[in-house]
Design a protein that fits this description.
With about 190 residues, the chain is an alpha+beta fold. It is built from four helices and eight strands, in the order ββααααββββββ. The strands form two sheets. The protein has a six-stranded antiparallel β-barrel. About 25% of the residues are buried.
Length: about 190
């Protein structure tokens, strides 16, 4: 309860940092936000900061890194499929997902560390060192915590191993990059 009103507070979030989400009526949001930022230890941030934290944590953004055409196996989210589901199936897409669990997916979501300072943005083409198209970037930008550009994208599974050399077609110029381990920055979630 806050000032006699009941709001929903969860210890969750999708930024890669431990945090809280507060659900409250829209009419009360501005006043509450003003009370928060009046506190000396609270600073407002924008969507760009939230997105760079999400990207550094290797977290998917729906409509960019995952969508209705992406399987959890391709997205490196197999951990979300419980034992019972794996054994019983019966969920939408089960035939494809269970086959990919056994045989592997044709493409994989990977972390990408571009060399230099130029970030690779969404829809940047990924090619192998021979110039063959092998995938595309789904999220990318500057990672303030790592001090350089970071990206995520999908590549053919034969190019998904950590350390694999890639090239990113950034504004028509091939830029060297490597497949990197996700997350780019260790997370600090509260695990109760």
């Amino acid at each position: 309860m806050v000032d006699g009103r009941q709001w929903l507070v969860t210890r969750s979030g999708y930024t890669g940092e431990d945090g809280f989400e507060i659900s409250l009526p829209a009419a009360e949001a501005e006043g509450f936000a003003r009370r928060l930022i009046a506190q000396p230890e609270v600073l407002p941030i924008g969507l760009g900061a939230r997105d760079s934290l999400r990207l550094e944590a290797g977290l998917c953004l729906y409509g960019h890194d995952i969508d209705e055409e992406t399987t959890p196996i391709e997205a490196d989210l197999a951990w979300t499929i419980g034992k019972r589901r794996r054994a019983d199936g019966g969920f939408p897409g089960a035939a494809t997902v269970l086959r990919q669990l056994t045989e592997g997916a044709p493409r994989k979501r990977v972390g990408i560390r571009p060399e230099g300072r130029a970030p690779a943005r969404e829809d940047t083409e990924i090619v192998d060192t021979a110039g063959n198209r092998i995938g595309r970037v789904t999220s990318g930008g500057f990672g303030p915590s790592v001090g350089g550009p970071v990206a995520m994208g999908y590549v053919h599974r034969s190019h998904a191993r950590e350390g694999t050399a890639l090239e990113l077609q950034v504004r028509g110029t091939p830029r060297p990059a490597r497949v990197a381990r996700l997350p780019f920055v260790p997370t600090h979630y509260y695990r109760g």
